[in-house]
Write a structure and sequence with these properties.
The protein is an alpha/beta fold. The protein has ten helices and 15 strands. The relative contact order is 0.07.
Length: about 350
């Protein structure tokens, strides 16, 4: 049917569920026009499309947008798109394993947005390799890197930090979102410079220690911490979060947002305190701090009677002039404040 139409650009949009897998034949027919396809957006990618379709082994010279989402942790073969996407501007993979990611990224020199979410196996992309891939993306403005699980103990212990890494500049990156373990993020940011980074969002998995001095060095090489004036800490039953704001005109702009997944109150506070102490530069320009619960906290908070976790956390914010507390948290924070000021 495509033969009866003029040679216009082709856009492929498809949505599959576990109960609906029909339509693969039509997609393959469209993909055969590989020199006309400008956008591919497929949710719930059927395994038959990646494993059995020879059409995806050809280059797609006109492709500018590519989104593939898998429910089954499908692995993309090394021959995918012939490893060549010279006009690609937006790439999003979700739930996909990457045999061909490096080759694909090194060819996508026009890429502006890169979103790799729900990565099934952190061992597929080591930080040094990821930094090398990113080095080719001088136009990249948005980077989204999200792992489904933390790295294995072996991967986290076998960190190669003996020699100073080669550092690459990402001159256009303004927004960075990361979800994973702190060691991976440290190993990555120690290999990149992002001079115009404007917003950094981090979500860490629960871990015993947060000793992240390399992050502090990275923050010092960005403009994220310029003119910060307000901080907000939010607590819920499953996580704790701190957001640092700076003024943009008359509005507040979220410059750094850090969340730690954890369900134990004491550990939430100590984990965030460790991160602030080892990662953040001195927050001398902060004027306001708010501490709030996102929703009603559970009965486990009634056992948090020690001042030590609060003291650890508050030490990173001793220069603030105004403190706002939600009513529920006053009884926990007030005793620690008395010790801090005394």
């Amino acid at each position: 049917m495509l033969d009866v139409w003029p040679t216009l650009p082709i856009v492929i949009d498809a949505f599959f569920t576990n109960s609906r897998r029909s339509g693969v034949t039509n997609i393959i027919a469209a993909l055969k026009e590989h020199d006309r396809v400008s956008r591919i957006n497929i949710w719930g990618v059927p395994s038959s499309l990646l494993k059995n379709s020879a059409v995806l082994k050809k280059p797609f010279p006109e492709l500018t947008d590519l989104t593939l989402r898998s429910y089954d942790a499908l692995r993309i073969p090394a021959s995918f798109l012939d490893g060549s996407t010279p006009r690609l501007q937006s790439l999003e993979f979700s739930g996909i394993q990457f045999a061909a990611l490096g080759k694909l990224l090194l060819s996508a020199t026009r890429l502006v947005t890169l979103r790799l979410s729900d990565i099934p196996n952190p061992g597929d992309i080591f930080p040094d390799a990821m930094a090398t891939y990113l080095s080719a993306l001088t136009r990249l403005q948005e980077l989204f890197l999200e792992f489904r699980f933390p790295r294995s103990v072996d991967d986290r212990q076998n960190r190669s930090l003996s020699l100073p890494p080669r550092r690459f500049v990402l001159p256009s990156l303004t927004e960075f979102y990361f979800k994973g373990d702190s060691e991976y993020l440290e190993d990555l940011v120690d290999r990149i410079d992002t001079p115009v980074l404007d917003k950094f969002t981090i979500t860490f998995f629960d871990q015993l220690l947060f000793d992240t001095p390399l992050l502090r060095g990275f923050f010092g090489r960005t403009n994220v911490f310029q003119a910060l004036h307000r901080a907000a800490i939010f607590i819920c039953s499953s996580c704790i979060n701190v957001t640092l704001f700076r003024r943009k005109g008359v509005a507040d702009h979220s410059a750094l947002d850090v969340g730690i997944s954890c369900r134990m109150p004491d550990r939430q506070l100590f984990s965030l305190a460790q991160f602030c102490r080892t990662s953040l530069p001195h927050l001398t320009t902060l004027e306001r701090l708010g501490i709030h619960e996102l929703m009603k906290l559970g009965p486990e908070w009634t056992d948090v009677v020690e001042d030590a976790p609060w003291l650890e956390l508050l030490h990173s914010f001793v220069t603030v002039k105004d403190l706002a507390l939600s009513r529920f948290l006053v009884r926990y924070v007030a005793p620690a404040l008395q010790e801090l000021t005394g």
